[in-house]
Design a protein that fits this description.
4-stranded antiparallel sheet, Tetrahydropterin Synthase, Chain A, 54% helix, 327 residues, 24% strand, rod-shaped, alpha+beta, 8 helices
Length: 327
């Protein structure tokens, strides 16, 4: 091969190497900074790009995706002088590759230190209880401060979260005792409320039972009274019907006299010691006396000797006759 051919081959090889080295392919969600003779020239995004070898230089890939940075726990002191450990999680995204490349050295380390100092400043203004219950407030304040501080670096702070808050062991023990006491207090209150409701329900049940029982007794007495009333009405109607029939039959004086004797016999069989006889039957006094003597005579054989007989004593007035029985 002639020397000219060798030179041509060398030139072609050099051109191929320069062509290959001038091609830069950037993936999606990434960017690169291109410097020309050591000075910023442009930013290349996703796709294929060509640069001039030796004259231009492409910087490292810069991710445009959202990045999660989990920083280790930091010691902070609250307003009431309680030391605790708090670790944070920061969600950030590069919005300006040029500012990110030239803004600050080691941006992640800068964000970590800035997060620690900001956290100490915010928690130092809060007491322990406020720190434990005001996570959202702390998160919002930290995001605003970090976003403003990292804006010149081409970084956007999307979210800041307090991952863990670890008070000292004695504080945790005291909090657990307080929480246990609170749970026991609530349990006692709930038990007392339950017993109260149970007693109220039992009293209401007894009240309703007594009311129902009283109403049942009332209804029973009303029904019994109505039954007695109906019975008396029926008896009175029967008696009235009997009297009507007797009056319609026009009974004789003898029949009435016999009925009067039967009535006197029923009265005499009672426990009364005096009998008031109407004056219109005084004419039968002798007949009553004879009947009494006959009855006593019939009873003498069976009457003990020590038992006295009944002797009627008749007192006659103008209007009525009183018969006193002595035993």
């Amino acid at each position: 091969m002639s020397p000219l051919g060798v030179i041509l081959l060398v030139v072609v090889a050099i051109l191929i190497i320069f062509a290959i080295s001038s091609v830069r392919i950037v993936q999606q969600s990434y960017a690169r900074v291109v410097e020309r003779l050591g000075k910023f020239n442009r930013v290349i995004n996703c796709g294929i790009h060509f640069i001039f070898p030796i004259v231009e230089k492409a910087g490292p890939l810069v991710s445009l995706k959202e990045i999660v940075a989990d920083f280790p726990p930091q010691s902070v002191i609250t307003k009431d002088n309680v030391t605790m450990q708090i670790d944070t999680v920061v969600y950030y995204q590069v919005t300006d590759p040029k500012a990110y490349t030239y803004g600050v050295e080691r941006p992640v380390s800068a964000i970590e230190n800035l997060t620690a100092t900001t956290l100490r400043n915010i928690v130092g203004e809060l007491e322990l209880d406020e720190t434990l219950t005001s996570r959202d407030t702390v998160n919002v304040k930290m995001r605003e401060i970090l976003d403003e501080a990292t804006d010149p670096w081409g970084i956007k702070i999307n979210r800041v979260e307090l991952k863990n808050i670890l008070p000292p062991k004695d504080i945790r023990d005291a909090m657990e005792k307080q929480m246990r006491a609170e749970r026991e207090r609530r349990e006692s209150i709930l038990m007392a409320e339950g017993e109260k409701q149970s007693a109220i329900l039992v009293a209401e049940g007894e009240k309703q039972s007594k009311i129902l029982r009283a109403e049942a007794d009332k209804e029973a007495k009303i029904l019994a009274a109505e039954a007695t009333k109906a019975s008396l009405e029926k008896e009175a109607e029967g008696l009235a019907e009997a009297i009507r029939l007797v009056n319609e039959a026009n009974p004789t004086n003898g029949y009435l006299t016999i009925k009067g004797f039967e009535a006197l016999e029923k009265v005499a069989n009672g426990k009364a010691t005096k009998l008031i006889v109407p004056s219109n039957i005084q004419d039968v006094t002798g007949l009553i006396a004879s009947l009494t003597e006959t009855t006593n005579f019939a009873k003498e054989p069976t009457t003990p000797a020590s038992q006295p007989t009944v002797a009627p004593k008749t007192t006659t007035t103008s209007k009525s006759t009183t018969v006193q029985l002595k035993k």
